[in-house]
């Protein structure tokens, strides 16, 4: 990271190279013109987009082989004009602007009734599947609710039907009480190593107050608090685990499903220090070499030492 | 591959180094003593086993955090004494011996009523998560039915309830008829690129006759036919796709579930030419850069040219 310059002429996400990307769909600017320098955060369609809002809407069902046309959107959130930073090393205010940009795009896309879900994610490093170093996140707006989210919601609903409480709220209460997998918590958020961690250093950021949808619930004050917690969590990983490659994924309710009582939005951060192989692929069971309780204890200690 | 010697003194899976592994649980030998040279296929517990048959059987349910002790088995099937081969380059007779060894172990483990499922898989190459070059497969016998298999079965059952036919048989009929994703087929097996391929060069090997369980159904004649098909499929990938890293996974019915009518055992082969990132992790939806119809056409052509 340190060896990269602050600006590169050949990086499409660097300031001054705005013509190297498709035209922006959103930007935080102080009066400067679109697709010109002078932005703080910039959102552009992915040049190699998986989905597009200009695709024709079409569903085909020839027997079992249902296909749906590539309607949707695949966007890149360029998090800073500075090439050699990462979300962990940016000031909290900048992280807050990134979250605001994400929220704006999600709210805009939510107005399209054909969009069912917006997946927001961040790939950091080659092992996490990114090819561009310049700090960025991505969002993919899909016309269907993805399998993984659907299953998560189904399980949460089943738990609610049995116990009349949100499974995440329930889990949070236990994590807060035992503290053994807790890394840190603030008034608004808890950061902990999940009980059934799949990967070494896997972490979850969970709002302490019940809320199903990031889009529907996130207020200004909460976004500021989340920016601080997200930055600190990533900086802790950056320092205590030697800048690991990772994927961070926002899990939130589908745009048009009423699962307000039993689902709970959260962020999953999964460092890529190990390679899932045939067993994980086939079974969905993950073998990890790290004990979450030990990981949490180590991170708590580092948090103190580094005074983050 | 070509640069590796046929034998390495420091490889625990090479002939003559039998003391470098835990004692064997099974071997195909012509009268030679256990844990000595003179074997054709050898099965040993994994030195870094995820599960063990000597673990205490224990289930704990402190509220939502259920744990189960590491009861089960994690075994390595050493496929040949020769260090510098791979399953693709071995003679069919040797592949058949490997399949027989797998079958034997599955049948033995099936007698333990605490074992619910046996996952058989092969990791080829570093990107597929293997650390040892010497050709080997693995099996993990689990006390629970893995999530992915459970979901596959649930979906298959739902399809059967609606249509009164096995979804795999139904899919096979369509694939055989259209032929556009078919790579090749024999009297007993069909090899094709799945309609919803997640990865470039993903392939499925499906028995043409309905059969839920590999363990229950595989007869001698069928095993010989499968050995030939598996070897040819892997050799085709090896030659036509330049020896890609891959995971191969056997999907078969749980040992004690009666899903005979609606489940159908098969082998999934997933080359690791791309890295699943945040989107795949979060959504369960896979973006692939290859069109299965084009992959199949290319492989059919290569199959002809290479006369495999």
Short note summarizing the structure:
Two copies of one chain form a homodimer. The first copy, chain A, is an alpha+beta fold.
CATH superfamily of the largest domain in chain A: HIT-like
The CATH class of the largest domain in chain A, by name, is Alpha Beta
Return the average pLDDT of chain A rounded to an integer: 93
Oligomer: homodimer
Run of helices and strands of chain A: EEEEEHEEHHEEEHHEEHH
CATH architecture of the largest domain in chain A: 2-Layer Sandwich
Low-confidence stretches of chain A: none
What structural class should be given to the helix and strand makeup of chain A? alpha+beta
Q: Please give the alpha-carbon distance between the first and last residues of chain A.
A: 20 Å
Total beta-strand segments of chain A: 12
Number of helices of chain A: 7
Q: What is the CATH T-level topology of the largest domain in chain A?
A: HIT family, subunit A
Q: Which outline of chain A best applies? A: globular
Range of helix content of chain A? 25-40%
Topology (SSEs and partners):
2 copies of one chain form a homodimer.
Chain A: E1 26-29, E2 39-45, E3 59-60, E4 67-68, E5 73-78, H1 92-110, E6 117-124, E7 136-142, H2 147-163, H3 167-178, E8 182-185, E9 189-192, E10 203-207, H4 214-217, H5 220-240, E11 246-251, E12 266-271, H6 278-283, H7 292-305
Antiparallel strand pairs in A: 1-2, 2-5, 3-4, 5-7, 6-7, 6-11, 8-9, 9-10, 10-12, 11-12
